[in-house]
């Protein structure tokens, strides 16, 4: 069943015609001949859409529409009228109608309008549900989401939290890899001790060594006092080495030695200090490819990759997008002092359709911007950036029926490979897995493409 429709018209023949048409299209239809009957049916039954005539004895269709808008705003009302003037259209919209049709009604247009209204209501209900869920327990630590990929991730996180095994957290930039690490720490037996995080890409090799292992006074020009380093600051707790794929090769050697021996040596010292720290690592890089290309040590890769947790990109998390958006709406409504409580259906559709290359970090930025701009109690499509309002889903175009438009099979393959690479943030290991190729075959195909495409 596609949906439940209530038809209200004092013309019995019209009711029967619409009933037959919609039933054949897969809808469950109930009809009545007055607004009073309609109100009684709405009180005792659940409908997805109401289709009503304007001119009826007693309460008119517009009055019925106003009543439904005030008591059941979740149900879209479609108004039918034989008087398709501008004044009628304005009166219809003012009464709270979702849409209006002129009589005689074109049955194909009617079914299309009904389908849109049902979809509109389902999305509206989903948004309401997600807004409620965002306020309850559909999260893990600081992480929001209940999609299948996230439920799988939560299960893995629970299982690894009680272990001291090394965990490599992978995922695109902005997906929340540090939140995964923090959540694991909070439910582990090290939760009472410090959680310390460092971005390995933000520091030079010399500074990174000093930051991790500490230094003694006089170890280098600016070393005016002793510093114990992050390994010792995290003693008993958890240390996250973020952006691990950007660590210089010479520093990788020193880190591997520290992890294998459980001891560190401060810069400028000849003494080693034992540490008790669980080390988690995170990266958006494809480390398997980096190992094969000689940019990352294989022995260190095996040492940090005892357990791998992959954080899915936001675009693959479905309605989690709306749940997270609702959370940020509540957060920024408080900080901005605005009474914004939700998001309109059209804006929600745009958020769901967008590909989110910046992931959760980008979504947070978009919602913060929307709260700063909005003039209403809900985020509207006008509050969203142009790139989201104008976004069109990507497809792999293969040409039309005109033989002059058709392209060689090799070109189709190249386009699809590029499409997959963009979808996985150019992670060649993951792309090869999706394409059903081994990595060497994928590399060979990429090398055969023009230089401009290889660098994309």
Summarize this entry quickly.
Helix content is 47%, strand content 14%.
Question: Could you please describe the fold and organization of this structure?
Answer:
The chain folds into 4 domains: 4-133, Rossmann fold (3-Layer(aba) Sandwich), CATH 3.40.50; 159-310, P-loop containing nucleotide triphosphate hydrolases (Rossmann fold); 314-389, Helicase, Ruva Protein, domain 3 (Orthogonal Bundle); 409-454, Arc Repressor Mutant, subunit A (Orthogonal Bundle). It has helices at 12-24, 35-44, 61-71, 86-94, 107-133, 148-161, 177-186, 205-213, 230-233, 249-261, 287-292, 298-304, 320-336, 345-353, 359-373, 386-389, 409-423, 428-435, 439-447, 451-454; strands at 4-8, 28-32, 49-53, 77-81, 99-102, 139-140, 143-144, 167-170, 195-199, 238-242, 263-265, 272-274, 278-283, 307-310, 342-343, 378-379. It has 20 helices and 16 strands. The strands form 5 sheets. It has a 5-stranded parallel sheet with strand order 2-1-3-4-5, sandwiched between helices. Strands 9-10-13-8-14 form a 5-stranded parallel sheet. It has a two-stranded antiparallel sheet with strand order 6-7. The chain is α/β, with parallel strands linked by helices. Strand 3 (49-53), helix 3 and strand 4 form a beta-alpha-beta unit. 32% of the residues are buried. The protein starts with a strand and ends with a helix. Residues 451-456 have low confidence and may be disordered.
